[in-house]
C-alpha cells in the first residue's frame, strides 16, 4: 500500500542554520508529492509540490526534489528563520486522489 | 477566493451531547476530506467523499460518528453521543480531484468534550 515516512522530530535549529527534513515514500504508480506546513493554531497549508520524477518544488526558500530512484522527497532550506517554526508534513497523492500524510516534524528555530 | 470554510471554530460541550461540525469546500472542488488531529494520534483521515459520494469511511472511529455531503457545497460531521476522547481538532479539506491537485485545508474546528 501507499505510505509516507518522515523524519522524527522535534528539530531545533539556530537562526540561519541549514534545514533538512527527510521524507521517503512507498507507492504504486506515479504519485504526486507535497510538503505542507502547519503554524500553531492553523490548518495545514501547501508549501510546495512536485508531480513527476526529477521535478523540484520550491517556495519561500524551501526546496524538495522528487527522486524516484530513492523514493524520496527531502525538504531543505539554506537559512532558516524564527518564522519558519512550525510542523511540516510530507504527503503523497495517488491516481485515485487519495492522500497519505507522514506523521509531521516539528521545527523550532531559536534566535 | 474563499478557501475551505469550517464552523464552528471552537466548540465546548458536555459528554453525551450531539456535536455537528460544518464544512463548505472550495467552489468547483469535487473531493472532500474530514481529518482529525490529536497530539497522541496525529492527523487521521476519517472519511473521503468524491462527487458527494462517500468513497472511504474506514477511518470513522465508530457508529457514534457520521458524515454527510448532501450537495457539492456543504458537508457535516456529526458525533452523537460525544465522549471526552473525541476532543480534537477536526479539519475539512477539499481538492479538485485530479491526481496532481493539492488538498486545501480549512482552519479547523477545535472540539472539547467535558
Key phrases:
heterodimer, A: 111 residues, mainly beta, six-stranded mixed β-sheet, four-stranded antiparallel β-sheet, 12 strands, globular, B: 114 residues, seven-stranded mixed β-sheet
Describe this protein's structure:
The complex is a heterodimer of chains A (111) and B (114). With 111 residues, chain A is mostly beta strands. Chain A is built from no helices and twelve strands. Chain A has strands at 3-6, 11-14, 19-21, 23-26, 32-38, 44-50, 56-59, 62-65, 75-77, 86-93, 99-101, 105-110. In chain A, strands 2, 5, 6, 10, 11 and 12 form a six-stranded mixed β-sheet that branches. In chain A, strands 3-9-8-7 form a four-stranded antiparallel β-sheet, with no helix packed on it. The mean pLDDT of chain A is 94. With 114 residues, chain B is an all-beta fold. Chain B has strands at 5-7, 10-13, 19-24, 31-38, 42-50, 53-56, 65-71, 74-79, 88-95, 104-105, 109-113. In chain B, the strands form two sheets. In chain B, strands 2, 4, 5, 6, 9, 10 and 11 form a seven-stranded mixed β-sheet that branches. In chain B, strands 1-3-8-7 form a four-stranded antiparallel β-sheet, with no helix packed on it. The termini of chain B are far apart. The chains are: A mainly beta (111), B mainly beta (114).
